[in-house]
Amino acid sequence: MFPNLNNLPVYDTTGVHERIARFCSRSIKSSSKIEGLKLALSMIDLTTLEGKDTKGKVQQLCYKAMHPHDSLKNIPTVAAICVYPSYVGVAKKALEGSDIQVASVATAFPSGQSTLEVKLSDTKFAVDQGADEIDMVISRGEFLAGNYQFVFDEIAAIKEACGKAHLKVILETGELETLDNVRKASEIAMYAGADFIKTSTGKIQPAATLPVTYVMFDAIKDYYLKTGKMIGMKPAGGISTSKIALQYLVMLNEVLGEKWMNKKYFRFGASSLTNDILMQLVKAETGIYQSINYFSKD
Amino acid sequence: MQKKDTSIFKAAWTYDEAPESTDHIQIKKKYELFIDGKFTKPIKGNYFDTINPATNKVIASVAEATTEDVDVAVKAARKAFGSWSKLSGKERGKYIFRIARLIQERAREFAVIESLDGGKPIRESRDIDIPLAANHFFYYAGWADKLEYAFPNRTPKPLGVAGQIIPWNFPLLMAAWKIAPALATGNTVVLKPAETTPLTALKLAEIIQESGLPKGVVNIVTGAGETGASIVNHPDINKIAFTGSTGVGKYIQKAIAGTQKKLTLELGGKGANIIFEDAAIDQAVEGIVNAIFFNQGHVCCAGSRLFVQESVADLVIQKLKDRMETLIVGNPLDKNTDIGAINSKKQLQTIENYIKIGVNEGGEIYQPKCNFPKEGNWCEPTLFINVSQSHRIVQEEIFGPVLAIQTFRTIDEVIEKANNTPYGLSAGVWTQNGSKIFHLTQKLEAGVIWANTFNKFDPASPFGGYKESGFGREGGLHGLKPYLKFE
What we know:
The complex is a heterodimer. Chain A has helices spanning 13-24, 30-42, 55-66, 88-94, 116-128, 140-144, 148-162, 173-176, 179-192, 210-227, 242-255, 273-286, and strands at residues 44-47, 80-83, 101-105, 133-137, 166-170, 196-198, 232-234, 268-270. Chain A is α/β, with parallel strands linked by helices. In chain A, strand 3 (101-105), helix 5 (116-128) and strand 4 form a beta-alpha-beta unit. In chain A, helix 1 packs across helix 10. Chain A starts with 12 loop residues before the first helix and ends in a 12-residue tail after the last helix. Chain B folds into 2 domains: 30-267 and 466-486, Aldehyde Dehydrogenase, Chain A, domain 1, CATH 3.40.605.10; 269-451, Aldehyde Dehydrogenase, Chain A, domain 2. Helices cover 38% and strands 17% of the residues of chain B. Chain B has a 7-stranded mixed beta sheet, with helices on both faces. A 6-stranded mixed beta sheet of chain B has the order 9-8-7-10-11-19, with helices on both faces.
């Protein structure tokens, strides 16, 4: 069902930034900090999306996903590995026996500038290789040109091609520029069948920001109130420190609340965040910050 | 719109205590009066206790100034006026700058003491009260040597001794609002802080001493209403500046009738916060929260009457309730606290009494569940839905975290209702339509009107009331005028 885009809530940028400042002023200490850090770790989509990716690189990353820091007890694994379609098979095999999901970008990632035919076959290939989740990109050019129906139809077609795989729809908010556009694109994605909405590819600046994520939370909340369906959220790109991750979690906690506070409904698309969280967790246990060289880089 | 159970959005992750440390502050057990540059024992030797409203424990004992003490203070101020008023503006400005810098340097200590003595959350005293107080001194320091440019072709002269009486809701900030323009214009000051929150003003006295300001230019006398009356009735005072309740404001105006004393009053309010259907609703909800729950609602310009356009009323109220569930009420010194302690037992009784009146009047009450500490003065953030202009809780100033919500249909209707109050201090307008904002700001009778925001203050912006909310302006260029005469 194509959503009614005429009556969407509007956003006042200054007001949104003020609200974000309130989330960022929350002081997270002691056991609530450890709880938050572990939760954040469990929500990471550990990502490598580079032209120079190889089988070896992906296998190493998969091992890291399963064994983030073995000298630390009682820590979760990350939620998923995120790779290009050509490495889905490699990742699937490497992660065998774990409950870590394999996510694959598809649909001519990151620009999305290709035909629907190519995008569908890109998606089907990833699914056939065993991808549990597909991270697609929307056609931002068509969106900005006002061809909302085109964007909607494309998402719906990819959703169908996903079969059982979960669909994350990347809005690439850095190219949409206004918060009102972010809301509109979120609405189109959710009504077209997205299981998750996601901010960014990580290839465009700015990538994920708190204000953009806030607006997407608001869209998810309203969508739930209207349809009863829970949509997940994935900010991606630029979330590199524990401090920023905790700010996202505070916002998640106070806007969407406990039902969304798990990896089923919230993910961080990140790579260097993992080690920063591990460093903080080790510090919480030992009282000492260790050198970054004590944490494996895969 | 299909209604779903919205308790699903409830937060699950509770934050551990994050208290601001208090070991860096210095509070004496006993405070004297600050007269003629020295801390002086009160003539009659009486003291009163100042209490931490979050624990109801005594923090310090403070001297009570009687008529005799006020007389000594006024004489000191009169004596100092001679040389202070003749000092060049540039030199006066230097002293004011110095005070501003010293406040900044000790901002953390000021913030903690403000929260201890008054009950406001440390987030507000740290991020709003103290920085704004310093900014007021900085701002008026800049005017001190430019008065002739501020009032071209006129010769501005200081009035003499200013008697200043300030309230308990923003203790240091109100002291700054009063003292900074008075000093910039060459007046001398006798200031009385409120009896429940004297500590930061006395800390300011220490800073003033440290700054080397000539003795007698600023005198700070502590005490309750009688001390204030002694200032108001003192024959050698040239100007009274008062911020507080409308009742006391009326008393002061009567008391000085027939004298040469100049007067500015900044009194109560019952601000209208108006949400149109074309507003950014989510930010408007945040604006409602800032308008009424800022400083526990102890704000004269609080947006205590909410008007919501009927087409979005259900949505706004639902979102407001959801938002209120995430407000953290409790220990003012915890960095995560959104709403602190009610300033005094007496004020808590006043608020509770109004809540009772609201319930008896048939208002639909909503309060989120709060985990209050065992001791101290606490009040839930409270909504009264479906009330009308005829309800007492809509007409009277409560000065607490209590919001009266009405709906409206048309612009003319909401303007009429917003102005249908003896007060006229503040108002807020929420719409994404710019021309609607200007239409309303022309018609609303309020001294300050915010558009798509609320409770924002800046030293450069004049502040003051219409009608029974007072007269005279504080802040900005306008704030200089009440301290000057023109020859």
